[in-house]
């Protein structure tokens, strides 16, 4: 079967993962579909092919796909509600060629400007390929539609791994310290896949005497990188806190599972920690941050979770009446914000009244640096 590809699968590393063939590039040739164009979908980063009397949609033909490869490609595309249809393209010799291609339901998306394929590859190619590795591993364990629902969470996890890889220093030996090469994974298993993942590993690690440890079994909660920001108004000398229901506190048996927190949220793919902090401040509390002071970038509990927190104090205006109720309804968020004068916040901080460690970190940093922030305001 000949398949015409015009979108994100033109990124060869992604196509190799999805098809399962690391040498699939040997079977491709360029082709076009006249009177069609490829444009970015309004509100998204991926493209669609749509009718355009003056356009030419460029793509590739993949020849000789077997049933197993088609099944893998179908699984990946059906996750996003795409289905194969048949039409005719012109191959690289300008000859008509019957092909099949993945397209969304008619009217599902609205085209925007012409799609910048190279720009997409530069910004999202690597993280999408990393996401596809996890996505395709579910082909025998969940329906395509379920995988599609979990895909944004898979991509957030991939973005966290990508961010770590791009920010890490030397692996080992160069600095005399141990690194990833000093860990041997014997077997890895996904025990739960959903909004978060739980992975179990049998592994061995290098001991400080140079020997390798006996095999050990560990289970880890696979979270994502998060941006956390404590808004501070240096002119009025006050902070903003938010309050919301937390399932973890509820399951621990806490009599009050509504916790007082800084503003927080996961860092989306293609987004930096500071961008996420500014976006979350607007979504959760309706405030605009004029500056961000980096407090810390650290693991909250690396023995049991991959989560990594980027903590900030955000400079902003907090006039009377700026508190309220916010959050994204699409994520079932119900978040109430409140303003505290510095004297009241500092008193509660030192009395141990707050129950969230990131808030304590940000609060104590602000206590040490507050005098330096106020004169410049």
Automatic annotation (TrEMBL):
A motif (Nudix box) lies at residues 265-287. The keyword Lipoprotein does not apply. One of its GO terms (molecular function) is metal ion binding. PROSITE patterns: NUDIX (PS51462), NUDIX_BOX (PS00893). Residues 161-176 have a biased composition (Polar residues). InterPro entries: AIG2-like_dom, GGCT-like, NDP_pyrophosphatase, NUDIX_hydrolase-like_dom_sf, NUDIX_hydrolase_CS, NUDIX_hydrolase_dom. It comes from the Bacteria. Mg(2+) binds at residues 264, 280, 284, 333. Residues 159-180 are annotated as: Disordered. It catalyses: ADP-D-ribose + H2O = D-ribose 5-phosphate + AMP + 2 H(+). Its EC number is 3.6.1.13. The keyword Hydrolase applies. GO terms for cellular component: cytosol. Keywords: Hydrolase, Magnesium, Metal-binding. Its cofactor is Mg(2+). One of its GO terms (biological process) is ribose phosphate metabolic process. PANTHER family: ADP-RIBOSE PYROPHOSPHATASE, UDP/ADP-SUGAR PYROPHOSPHATASE. Acts on ADP-mannose and ADP-glucose as well as ADP-ribose. Prevents glycogen biosynthesis. The reaction catalyzed by this enzyme is a limiting step of the gluconeogenic process. Belongs to the Nudix hydrolase family. NudF subfamily. This is ADP-ribose pyrophosphatase. It comes from Octadecabacter arcticus 238.
């Amino acid at each position: 079967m000949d398949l015409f590809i015009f979108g994100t699968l033109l990124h060869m590393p992604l196509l190799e993962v999805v098809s399962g063939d690391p040498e699939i590039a040997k079977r491709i040739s360029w082709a076009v579909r006249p009177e069609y164009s490829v444009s970015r979908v309004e509100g998204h980063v991926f493209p669609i092919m749509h009718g355009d009397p003056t356009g030419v949609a460029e793509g590739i033909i993949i020849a000789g796909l077997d049933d197993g490869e088609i099944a893998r490609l179908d699984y990946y595309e059906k996750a996003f509600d795409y289905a194969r249809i048949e039409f005719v393209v012109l191959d690289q010799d300008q000859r008509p060629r019957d092909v099949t291609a993945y397209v969304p339901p008619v009217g599902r998306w609205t085209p925007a400007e012409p799609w910048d394929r190279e720009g997409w590859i530069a910004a999202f190619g690597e993280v999408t390929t990393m996401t596809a590795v996890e996505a395709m591993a579910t082909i025998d364990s969940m329906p395509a539609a379920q995988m599609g629902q979990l895909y944004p969470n898979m991509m957030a996890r991939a973005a966290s791994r990508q961010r770590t890889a791009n920010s890490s220093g030397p692996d080992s030996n160069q600095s005399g310290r141990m690194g990833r090469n000093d860990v041997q994974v014997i077997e890895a298993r996904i025990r739960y896949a959903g909004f978060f993942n739980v992975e179990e590993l049998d592994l061995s690690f290098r001991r400080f005497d140079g020997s390798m440890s006996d095999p050990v079994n560990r289970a880890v909660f696979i979270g994502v990188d998060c941006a956390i920001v404590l808004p501070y108004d240096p002119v009025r000398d006050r902070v903003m806190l938010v309050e919301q229901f937390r399932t973890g506190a509820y399951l621990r048996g806490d009599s009050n599972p509504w916790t007082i927190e800084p503003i927080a949220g996961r860092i989306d793919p293609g987004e930096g920690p500071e961008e996420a902090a500014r976006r979350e401040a607007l979504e959760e509390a309706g405030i605009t941050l004029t500056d961000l002071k980096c407090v810390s970038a650290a693991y909250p509990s690396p023995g049991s979770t991959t989560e990594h927190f980027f903590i900030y104090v955000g400079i902003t205006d907090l006039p009377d009446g700026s508190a309220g109720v916010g959050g994204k309804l699409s994520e079932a968020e119900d978040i109430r914000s409140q303003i505290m004068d510095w004297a009241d916040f500092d008193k509660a901080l030192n009395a141990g009244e707050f129950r969230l460690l990131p808030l304590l970190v940000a609060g104590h940093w602000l206590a040490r640096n507050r005098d330096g922030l106020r004169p410049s305001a």
